[in-house]
Write a structure and sequence with these properties.
The protein has about 160 residues and is mainly beta. The chain is about 10% helix and about 30% strand. The chain starts with 6 loop residues before the first helix and ends with a strand. Keywords: Biotin, Fatty acid biosynthesis, Fatty acid metabolism, Lipid biosynthesis, Lipid metabolism.
Length: about 160
């Protein structure tokens, strides 16, 4: 933390919090240098609460009511959608950044669904702060699902693919 706290630092932190909210981010880290041996390290994190519900009984048919959000339907006996992040073969994002499935635009992707991978093999790239970070396969196996789309932003811990 900076040796001298100023109103400018407080305004800077408030601006970072606004950026966090406006861009639907959950975490933001910045280091502000003031000079030799004087800097301000800031990490702003937003708490995200995820609520899941499980239906065990059939729902009686009721007349449809107008909805303002996306429609969700439940069918008796239908399996509840699984959370890919909880899958034992999930490869999750180790950082916030942008996912790239190929080394360069227009080239073949590192892996496709059905590809056999070895432990340590690069399966995708995450760009964070202009640095291309190769993400290795944590285990050998077959790629069953690719959950991230090329060129899209991802959050820390977001499921990227399933390797079984």
């Amino acid at each position: 933390m900076s040796k001298t706290s100023t109103d400018a630092d407080v305004a800077f932190i408030k601006a970072l919090a606004e950026i966090l909210n406006q861009n639907d981010l959950t975490e933001l880290s910045v280091k502000r240098e003031y000079g030799e041996d004087d800097s301000l390290d800031i990490r702003v994190v937003k708490q995200v609460n995820i609520v899941t519900t499980h239906m065990s009984a059939p729902v009686a048919a009721q007349p449809a009511a107008p909805q303002s959000g996306p429609a969700v339907t439940a069918h008796a006996g239908a399996p509840v959608a699984e959370d890919p992040a909880q899958h034992p073969g999930a490869v999750t994002s180790p950082m916030v950044g942008t996912v790239y499935l190929a080394a360069e635009p227009g080239t073949a992707p590192f892996v496709t669904v059905g590809s056999t991978v070895t432990e340590g093999q690069t399966v995708l790239i995450i760009e964070a702060m202009k640095t291309m970070n190769h993400i290795p396969a944590p285990r050998a196996g077959v790629v069953r699902r690719i959950l991230a789309e090329d060129g899209t932003p991802v959050e820390y811990g977001a499921p990227l693919m399933i390797i079984e």
